[in-house]
Every structure is written in structure tokens, then in C-alpha cells.
Write a structure and sequence with these properties.
- The chain is an alpha+beta fold.
- 61% of the residues lie in helices and 6% in strands.
- It has helices at residues 14-39, 48-80, 85-108, 112-173, 180-185, 252-259, 265-275, and strands spanning 206-208, 224-228, 238-242, 247-250.
- Helix 3 packs antiparallel against helix 4 (112-173).
- It starts with 13 loop residues before the first helix and ends with a helix.
- The relative contact order is 0.08.
């Protein structure tokens, strides 16, 4: 499935964006001023404000070009149902310095060689800063997205299990399935549904207690139907589906509090016995 850009953007990236803009405008402006003063042997260095303006115009053009390239690849990936988010980002990183140099070439009114020599410090700094901040933002954002995807997949699998057991099996046979594997044997779904992304090494990554689905029609019921096993998702929490069919993602502390509720006494006892070392 094509990954939407919004899945990888977070509020904590705003300070990084501010740092990038400040470094590009102010730092780039001073670097350009120093290059002009040194390489053109000017008696008086150019005004800082003028250099900052040049960097603003070059940065705006580079940013727009990068956005256009990234968006085109984004749309292509969306229509082709493939993941092009990383290639889109890399393409933007390659296009932006080139456009920034071309903009500075036009603004400085110098030869292409002189403009390239003068643009190397600020544009090189742009490339380095983009790579550093891109890694600082992209790596944790990717980790967070993978965790969210695993959590959502675990919840989806639990919902499929609930619908098969409570919605189809029990009304047909008058009793709950003896275990989750019986639902696979009777072709309610594929065996992969029983695998939790939080415990990819186990054939059955969820815990289920074969008891009648009392309270399935009560939307306020807090009775647990099935859940992730201990250690799922790195101990960050567990995917849970209630007898009513409500899916929940709970941190371990909240999950233990749910287990301690009276309706879940039997489920909690069986789960803790199954998870005992």
C-alpha cells in the first residue's frame, strides 16, 4: 500500500524546519558574503542583507522545485500503488542544490564558473544540512510509522478473528471455537491472520480463551475477547479486541488495569498462566 506523506510528518519536526530555514538564510548569506569578498577581491564586502536576499530567492526556487519533483513522484507512486516516498525525497535533495545554483548564477551576474565557485560553500552547506536533518527526522519518523503499522495490523487481525469466532462460528455451532487454529482449519481466514506483527516468530501471536461471548451486544462491556501476548511490540503495549468487537491499543499498564476488572478475572488468570516463564 502506498505510504501517505502525512504518516511520516510530526509536530516535533517544526523546530528542525526552523533551524534549516535559519541556517540556509543567515548561515548561507554569510557564507555567500565571505565567498564574494574573498574570491572577487572586493575592497568592501557585500551587504549581509543583500546576500541573505539572494539566499532567500535561491532557497525559495530550490524548495519549490524540490516540492514539484517530490509531488510528481508521490502521485506516480500513489497511482501505481507502490512506495516512492524515499525516491521522491532523494530526487528532491538532488534537484534543490542544482536549482539553487542556477538561481544564484542568474542573480550574481557572473560567469558559470565563477558562480559555481561562489555557490559551492552555501549550496554545499545546504546539501550537508539537508542530509543531517533529513536523517535526524526521517529515521525516527520511519521507526514510528513501522510501529504504528504493526499496531494497526495486529488490531485488524484481531477484528478478523472476532468476526469469525463471534459473528460466524459461535452462531453456527452454538459454542466458541476450541482455539484460534480451528478457525483456520474451517477456512474462516488464512493462517497469517493468527500471526501478530508484534511477535512475528510465532504461528499464533494472540491469546484467546474459549468462553461464550457474553456481553457481545453490550457496547459498554469491557470484557476481553483476545489480545497480544506478553512482549509484543517491544513491550510498548498490546492490541486488544473486546467481546463487543471494539478494538483497542493499550499500553501495558493500562492493559493490566483492564485485566484487573471483574469481567476479565477468568481471562486474566488464563493469560498470566500462559505467559508464565
Amino acid at each position: 500500500m502506498f505510504e501517505k506523506l502525512g504518516h511520516y510528518t510530526h509536530w516535533w519536526m517544526l523546530p528542525m524546519l526552523g533551524l534549516f530555514l535559519a541556517a540556509w538564510l543567515i548561515g548561507g548569506g554569510y557564507l555567500l558574503r565571505a565567498s564574494l569578498h574573498k574570491k572577487l577581491a572586493q575592497r568592501r564586502p557585500p551587504r549581509v542583507g543583500q546576500c541573505v536576499l539572494h539566499m532567500f530567492l535561491a532557497g525559495t526556487a530550490a524548495g519549490l522545485a524540490g516540492l514539484v519533483v517530490a509531488y510528481l513522484l508521490y502521485v506516480i507512486g500513489s497511482r501505481a500503488d507502490t512506495r516512492l516516498l524515499l525516491p521522491a525525497g532523494l530526487a528532491a535533495v538532488l534537484v534543490m542544490p542544482l536549482v539553487a545554483y542556477m538561481m544564484l548564477f542568474g542573480l550574481l551576474n557572473l560567469s558559470a564558473r565563477q558562480s559555481l565557485s561562489l555557490a559551492l560553500p552555501p549550496v554545499g552547506g545546504l546539501i550537508l544540512l539537508t542530509l543531517v536533518l533529513g536523517a535526524a527526522a526521517g529515521i525516527p519518523a520511519t521507526v514510528i510509522r513501522h510501529r504504528e503499522r504493526d499496531q494497526n495490523l495486529a488490531l485488524r487481525n484481531l477484528l478478523l478473528i472476532h468476526r469469525a469466532a463471534v459473528g460466524s462460528y459461535e452462531p453456527s455451532f452454538g459454542k466458541p471455537p476450541r482455539d484460534l487454529s480451528e478457525l483456520v482449519e474451517r477456512n474462516y481466514f488464512d493462517a497469517k491472520v493468527l500471526q501478530s506483527p508484534g511477535l512475528p516468530g510465532r504461528q499464533v501471536g494472540f491469546f484467546y480463551l474459549p468462553t461464550p461471548a457474553r456481553g457481545k451486544d453490550d457496547p459498554n462491556s469491557r470484557r476481553i475477547f483476545a489480545c497480544d501476548m506478553l512482549g509484543s511490540h517491544g513491550g510498548r503495549g498490546r492490541a486488544v479486541v473486546l467481546v463487543s468487537g471494539q478494538p483497542m491499543w493499550l499500553k501495558e499498564k493500562a492493559f493490566q488495569a483492564l485485566l484487573d476488572e471483574p469481567d476479565n478475572e477468568q481471562f486474566a488468570e488464563a493469560l498470566r498462566a500462559a505467559e508464565a516463564p
